Amino acid sequence: MTVDQAAEPPDSAPGPGHLPVVIVGAGPVGVTAALLLARRGIRTVVLERHREVYPLPRAVAIDDEVIRILQAAGVQEEFTAIARPARGLRLLDARHRVMAEFPRAAQGEHGFPQTSMFDQPALERVLRDALTDTPEAELRDGVEVLGIAQDGDGPVRVSYRDDEGEHLLRADTVLGCDGANSITRDAIGSTWENLHFEERWTVVDVRTSLPVRCWEGVEQICDPQQPATFMRIGEDRYRWEFRLRDGSEPDHERLRELLAPWVDLADGADFEVVRQAQYTFRARIADRWRHGRVFLLGDAAHLTPPFVGQGLCAGLRDAYNLTWKLARVLQQGADERLLDTYESERKPHARHLIRLAVAMGWAMTGGQDRAAALRRGVLGAAVRIPGLTSAAARDFSPALTAGPLVRRRVRLGRHGLVGGFCPQPLVNIDGRHARLDELLGDSFAVLTALPLPPSLLAVTDGLGARTVPVAGLGDDNRLAAWLREGRASAVLLRPDRVVMDVVPAGGDTFTDTAGWASLLHTTRSTPPSQRSTETRLLRSTTR
Ligand SMILES: O=C(O)CCc1cccc(O)c1
């Protein structure tokens, strides 16, 4: 086995062949994590088994909050070019009568369509292209990871094999973005907690120029005899999902019957099944997401049935939550305990979304237990299942639960702002419209309705926060109204745009500086290699 000298970073290496971060898996979560770290000047080596982008579609939907993460990774415009806004979610009964309809806005509060559909290989190509243009990240594909281990506080050792033999990397941190069968999860001794949903479904991806009866949104067929999902994902691309009755894949004739409500499949019609695959939809969550400096992200940490379209979204949220914290620890010597907040913040959020997906699955299938079986045949059961209303109403992303960085000493406004995501309206920069995050950059930020007193400026300067007055910031004064509704005169935003603290209306200080300051305190200044906000502003344009 060779210790990989080529990986040695010249400026920050504590020893030979030592890397700041190794990422296992170059799917969308791994590559997004690499791009987000690169924006902070952190080098990564990304190890991937497949040589090419995996060609078959899997994830198909993303919400507006998560497009904002792609924006932070620098690929939002490229994503928008391959995405298709969806009109929303409809629950239909067995005879395809609409039981409930939940429309999604073309422009949500984060500045993007509330639901967008896409083809996963197309998204992966966008991300890989961006990775190729990123000098801080190196993709090594066609490799098999053999082992991941860390002794005490020492470096994490990652061994892998390629055509030339076996290699060993040493890294400060390893991110396991290696999917449901994660070798990283096994390596840290993490096991699945079962969230009680397991069904065999067939997923049929189709390309056709035939007219397809569709509503340009996602249709969930709530029919215990034959539950199904249908959605359009591109100009001539469609997806159907059907629960398998007896475990057997439908043959051509059965498929024709199943698709009949949407499309007439005459012989010889232009209709190509791009992929038909059986899946076991499961609900699971890893019991631990971190061991030492090894972390689990995406499907390595959580599995959800696809019924609310949040599987990939959860993984991208993982990457956004972890990367700024990791940068602060690796580059600026922040307290190691900051990294514990990754799991404590992300796990309850992921669990919440998995539960919503399971509730939706029960609504569609009549459930898997005796009590649920009693609901069978009852029209409208779908909209009565607890928790489903919020899923359907798209209350997908709850505020983070309380923790060291989200203390919620005060509960302000109707929901309270702390722990929630700040909206992203268009703002005016030098006479042009831009998205808020372009102005805020990658760092902490303060949005304020009033001038901050010098004592607070000292605190926010210590975080490297940019202070932005909201008055006149956008044409609609949306942020000023948001602060008013939240009864705050200022908010302190983390780099991932979560509200970390507020200055209550009428107050003159943050509510919990002592709570978060010790975790965020840095012992080194940001290295010059970090890309500046100015660079980012120059690179981005607004649609
Ligand atoms: O809630 C929405 O707008 C769509 C939810 C969705 C997306 C993709 C698949 C799916 O089964 C549901």
UniProtKB/TrEMBL annotation:
Keyword Oxidoreductase tagged: yes
Record carries keyword Cell membrane: no
Keywords: Oxidoreductase
Xref: Gene3D superfamilies: 3.30.70.2450, 3.40.30.120, FAD/NAD(P)-binding domain
Residue numbers spanned by region Disordered: 522-543
The FAD-binding domain, residue ranges: 19-355
Biased composition (Low complexity): 522-532
EC number(s) reported in the record: 1.14.13.127
Stored InterPro entries: FAD-bd, FAD/NAD-bd_sf, PheA/TfdB_FAD_monoxygenase
Molecular functions (GO terms): 3-(3-hydroxyphenyl)propionate hydroxylase activity
Pfam assignment, any one: FAD_binding_3
PANTHER family: 3-(3-HYDROXY-PHENYL)PROPIONATE/3-HYDROXYCINNAMIC ACID HYDROXYLASE (PTHR43476), FAD-BINDING MONOOXYGENASE (PTHR43476:SF3)
Protein name: 3-(3-hydroxy-phenyl)propionate hydroxylase
